[in-house]
Amino acid sequence: MRKRYDFTIILAGAMLWICGTATAQLDQLLKKVETASPSANLPGMSLSDDKIVSGLKEALTKSTGTAVASTGRVDGYFKNQAIKILLPGPLETAGKGMRMVGMGAQLDDLELSMNRAAEQAAPAARQIFIDAIKKMSFEDARKILSGGNTAATDYFKKTSSTDLTHAFTPIVHKAMENVGLIAKFNQVTKSSAAAPLLAGQNFNLDNYVVGKALDGLFYMLGQEEKQIRTNPAAQTTALLKEVFGKK
User: Fold this and answer.
1) How far apart are CA 169 and CA 165, in angstroms?
2) Are 70 and 220 in contact (CB under 8 A)?
3) Of residues 201 and 247, which shows the higher confidence score?
4) 63 neighbors 228 (Cβ within 8 angstroms)
5) With bands split at pLDDT 50, 70 and 90, how would you rate the model's confidence at 129?
6) Are 78 and 119 in contact (CB under 8 A)?
């Protein structure tokens, strides 16, 4: 009976020692978690504030510059199927009938002219993007860095769309006047095939081309941003690798 009692004491002591050791280890682990950054697993979050902001601004300057350069040149829109500006919906619908009566060349010329207008307007975005980058706060930078693959593009849409619209509109309008696009559009829309579909519609060609031009620009910007975030080959400087590279 005494041996069984001694064994019980020994077993109980061993359990207390094991539990005590485990508790101590757990306490140490919790202290490490508490002192660690809550976003330690996110790219760039263990860096200093200055490096985070500098790295992000460098990435945005690179991505916006590339997006503007790729769209603001001849065929930047027209030969890029992802952003090519197509004829407005009702006119596109009427297009088949219009081509059957020999108006295909006019439709093609109209579509080309819209894309050329967008290509001429795109370079105006460069300075607007640069200004938005300069105004970016550290909190903005944190949110963008820890956001999705197009978080910066979404930021630009929110902060720059109004300025971009104001900048693009006169350029697009002048470009369309230079090639007689408005006259061409009016001529096409008055054709027997298109008129019924466009009747009663208050269609603004300037607004349509500007809107599509901005859609294309933001699409290209989003593609560039994804590359920098996910493709090591696109992280072309040491700072970009440090901020966006996987930890």
Assistant:
1) 6
2) yes
3) 201
4) yes
5) very high
6) yes
